Amino acid sequence: MKMITAVFRPEKLQSVKDALKAAGINAMTMTDVRGRGQQSGIVFTNRVGSLVVDEIEKTRIDIVLEDKEVDTAIDAIKKAAATGHNGDGRIFVMPVERSIRIRDE
């Protein structure tokens, strides 16, 4: 099993959820997060001066799935979350040793 963690623009959440659902992947955990990537934030400049916003709002989803579903999920997320601009996000894939459903005894 693998865990996919994807961090992307919040306005792309519905597109990503729809793309994953179309790919047969329904279960996920969603979190609103803040951070910065390679772009190190955004600089706004006007007549008064400059303002650096280095904590940018993003959405994070975590999905645990079988190894054979990983590439399908990655493709769906990439296509749905991409805008072609800096700050589109990142996808991480990590091994999962065990997954225990709390409901089961």
Topology (SSEs and partners):
Layout: E1 2-8, H1 13-22, E2 29-35, E3 42-45, E4 50-53, E5 56-65, H2 70-81, E6 89-95
Antiparallel strand pairs: 1-5, 1-6, 2-5, 3-4
CA(first)-CA(last) distance = 21 Å
- The CATH architecture is 2-Layer Sandwich
Q: Structural class of the secondary structure composition?
A: alpha+beta
What fold name stands as the CATH topology? Alpha-Beta Plaits
Description:
With 105 residues, this protein is an alpha+beta fold. The protein has one domain: Alpha-Beta Plaits, CATH 3.30.70.120. The chain is 21% helix and 37% strand. The chain has 2 helices and 6 strands, in the order βαββββαβ. Helix 1 (13-22) runs antiparallel to helix 2. The longest helix has 12 residues, at 70-81. The chain is elongated, with a radius of gyration of 16 Å.
Name the features.
105 residues, alpha+beta, Alpha-Beta Plaits, 4-stranded antiparallel sheet, two-stranded antiparallel ribbon, 2 helices
Brief synopsis:
With 105 residues, this protein is an alpha+beta fold. The relative contact order is 0.34.
